[in-house]
Design goal:
CATH topology of chain A: Helix Hairpins
Distance between the termini of chain B: 16 Å
Membrane topology (chain A): Multi-pass membrane protein
Oligomer: heterodimer
Shape of chain A: elongated
Distance between the termini of chain A: 52 Å
Structural class of chain A: mainly alpha
Order of helices and strands of chain B: HHHHEEHHHHHHHHHHHHHEEHHHHEHH
Strand content of chain B: under 5%
Largest sheet of chain A: none
Largest interface: A-B, 50 and 56 residues
Number of helices of chain A: 3
Order of helices and strands of chain A: HHH
GO molecular function, one term (chain A): quinone binding
Family (chain A): Belongs to the complex I subunit 4L family.
Protein name (chain A): NADH-quinone oxidoreductase subunit K
Number of domains of chain A: 1
Helix content of chain B: 55-70%
Strand content of chain A: under 5%
Keywords (chain A): Cell membrane, Membrane, NAD, Oxidoreductase, Quinone, Translocase, Transmembrane, Transmembrane helix, Transport
Helix content of chain A: over 70%
Number of strands of chain B: 5
Number of strands of chain A: 0
Chain lengths: 99, 557
């Protein structure tokens, strides 16, 4: 199968992730949607790496995985902290600051 | 990268280059790294790692002194390294690409790194202020939570406060953030751009959550900043992937060559992807979007007021100044080095973004009643003025933006340092009504804040005027005259609310239950003094610094 199809699949996954970030209300689910977007980018990178026949894209995918792992550590720490002080992880409830 | 270079030089089949090369008996070359050229970043990141070790092994009592001295020494050493590099001509005649094509060591990079390090020194000093909060258990405490992991108002927090604990981890976090920011404007490939973005963003998300007072607000700010920041970095990453697909490389110069079509393409796959403009346009737009988010430009500005208001004020000051410097450096390099061949496409878009940013920032700021939110909207307006300089697409555009960034960042640091001093029983009194009559009660502090506000407004004899003049002049010469007109109108609107605060401070009666002005230690005093000195010197005698920025205005390709 042509690697181009994987790029289309990745674009679809990225769109699903972006839509999820915008419409879901639970901070954990929003964060999972962001991870889906990062993984869509990874799939794009390896697909293009295969097409171009060089390794830059694959190496970059490794870096993205490491960065995503670091982001999970920081992100979950912040979201768990929010949950412990409010007993809710909904992003709509976090609205102390309004114009 | 080395591997692919070897592969193409050896003329081996395209797929799976690495394995073919090794099978053919060639040696895999170790990368050559110019450690001297990278020393500013390496020193800062090394000191950050040292700070983590201090947290792990030093006893609690001695951590504060150790962290503070190590951080300041590290930043000073890194600044000395930047000066050394600049003196050896690395910023002008001997500018080069270092680190196997990953990093540029050139004028804009060194100028911004020097600015960032000075901002970092002032930031460390404001973080270290321990005179403002009432002392607990006989030990003085700073603006950061006693134990950030404890629930606000819970038993754990009470015990931690009673024991007089402090979060000295803020110093290593700050150093990691500065390290990432040093890399960001110097990044010369998209991979390093993404990694540097995360390296400086992740510590900032954490720092936002660490306020000692109003912890719910602070945590909310951190969640908003984190979710929106991660969202925007995902866009940047996907744009990176599309640009890689377009050009077959993530190096800036490689992409620029494919964009301009200067090389004859023999590879059929590359000929096919390079002919696909959708990849280039969508990829470039997504990467620029990620950077505009960090800059705080409309329509990607929604996080700015909430995060600036909720974060601990020393963090807000550092973040407002340093993030803008780093992100504008990266944006300039991307637009001027990678996408100059596309300037007919991105200039109209940036026109729209700049006009929206200037007007929205200035107009919405008028309705604000909180000092920190007011400064947040003012920072949005300033991002618009800076974008006008970016649009100039000329050498004077680059140098005017560099000068503006240096001038703006010290005004911002000073202004937020002043905000930390106006306090009542609940901590900082940030509501504007509480600032009424401050000029009667403590004329010196009000006068200093007035100087910063005048600099924000761009009144002559302050650094803000010199910066704004340089940026608008470059934009007008670059054919963006209409943008300059909008910029001047936005400046006039902005001047209204800056002057309104000055009038409020000096010409209204102080409230009976008004806030008191805390007497800071030498830390905050020196931060504010540096702000005032830089503001006045850059305003009265800007020529030397304009020349310095002018010499630094050329990107290495």
């Amino acid at each position: 199968m042509s690697p181009v199809n994987y790029v289309y699949l990745a674009a679809l996954l990225f769109t699903i992730g972006a839509t999820g970030v915008l419409i879901r209300r639970n901070a954990i689910v929003v964060f999972m949607c962001i991870e889906l977007m990062l993984n869509a980018a990874n799939l794009t990178l390896v697909a293009f790496s295969r097409m171009h026949g060089n390794l830059d894209g694959q190496i970059m995918a490794f870096f993205v995985m490491v960065v995503a792992a670091a982001e999970v550590v920081v992100g979950l720490a912040i979201i768990v902290m929010l949950y412990r002080s409010r007993h809710s992880a909904s992003v709509d409830d976090a609205s102390l600051m309004k114009l | 990268m080395t591997v692919t270079n070897v592969a193409s030089a050896g003329g081996v089949p395209d797929v799976g280059g690495l394995w073919t090369v090794l099978a053919a008996g060639d040696k895999l070359q170790a990368p050559s790294i110019e450690y001297g050229k990278l020393s500013p970043t390496l020193i800062v990141l090394g000191v950050a790692a040292l700070g983590v070790l201090i947290e792990a092994f030093a006893p609690r009592k001695s951590r504060y002194g150790a962290q503070l001295s190590v951080s300041l020494l590290g930043l000073a050493a890194a600044f000395a390294a930047v000066i050394g590099l600049a003196a050896s001509g690395a910023g002008t005649t001997r500018a080069q690409i270092a680190g196997m094509g990953a990093l540029a060591v050139d004028g804009p990079a060194l100028f911004l790194q020097g600015t960032l390090l000075l901002v970092g020194i002032v930031g460390v000093v404001t973080f270290a202020e321990r005179r403002l909060e009432p002392s607990a258990a006989g030990s003085r405490v700073d603006a950061f939570a006693a134990q950030p992991a404890s629930v606000p108002g819970g038993e754990g927090e009470r015990q931690a406060v009673k024991a007089g604990w402090t979060t000295t981890e803020v110093f290593p976090l700050l150093m990691f953030a500065i390290g990432g920011m040093l890399l960001f404007p110097a990044a010369n490939d998209l991979l390093l751009l993404f990694v540097a973005l995360e390296v400086f963003s992740l510590p900032l998300y954490l720092l936002c959550a660490l306020a000692r007072r109003r912890r719910l607000l602070s945590q909310e700010a951190a969640v908003k900043y984190f979710l929106l920041g991660a969202f925007s970095s995902a866009f940047l990453l996907f744009g990176t992937a599309l640009l890689y697909g377009y050009a077959g490389t993530v190096g800036y110069s490689g992409i620029a060559r494919v964009v301009s079509g200067s090389d004859a393409v023999s590879d059929p796959v590359l000929a096919q992807t390079a002919g696909n403009d959708a990849l280039l346009l969508i990829g470039g737009a997504l990467v620029v979007m990620g950077l505009l988010f960090k800059v705080g430009a409309v329509p990607f500005h929604m996080w700015t007021p909430d995060v600036y208001q909720g974060a601990p004020t020393p963090v807000t000051g550092f973040m407002a100044a340093a993030t803008k410097v780093a992100a504008f450096g990266a944006l300039l390099r991307l637009l001027y080095v990678v996408l100059p061949g596309l300037s007919w496409d991105w200039r109209p878009v940036m026109w729209g973004v700049a006009i929206l940013t200037m007007l929205a920032g200035a107009v919405v700021a008028i309705t604000q009643t909180d000092v920190k939110r007011l400064l947040a909207y003012s920072s949005i307006a300033h991002a618009g003025f800076l974008l006008a300089g970016v649009i100039a697409t000329s050498k004077s555009g680059v140098s005017s933006v560099l000068f503006y960034l240096a001038a703006y960042s010290f005004v911002t640091l000073g202004a937020f340092a002043v905000v930390t001093l106006v306090r009542d029983a609940g901590g900082e009194a940030t509501h504007l009504s509480k600032w009424a009559g401050l000029g009667r009660r403590s004329p010196l502090l009000a006068a200093v804040f007035a100087i910063f506000l005048l600099a924000f407004a761009g009144i002559p004899l302050t650094s803000g005027f010199a910066g704004k003049f340089a940026v608008f002049k470059a934009a007008a010469e670059g054919g963006a005259g209409a943008l300059v007109v909008v910029g001047v109108i936005a400046s006039a609107i902005a001047a209204f609310f800056y002057l309104r605060v000055i009038v409020l401070m000096f010409f209204s009666e102080p409230q009976a239950d008004g806030p008191s002005v805390a007497v800071p230690s030498v830390m905050t005093t020196s931060a504010i003094a540096v702000g005032v000195v830089v503001t006045v010197v850059l305003g009265v005698a800007p020529q030397y610094f304009l020349d310095l920025a002018g010499h630094a205005g050329v990107f290495v390709r």
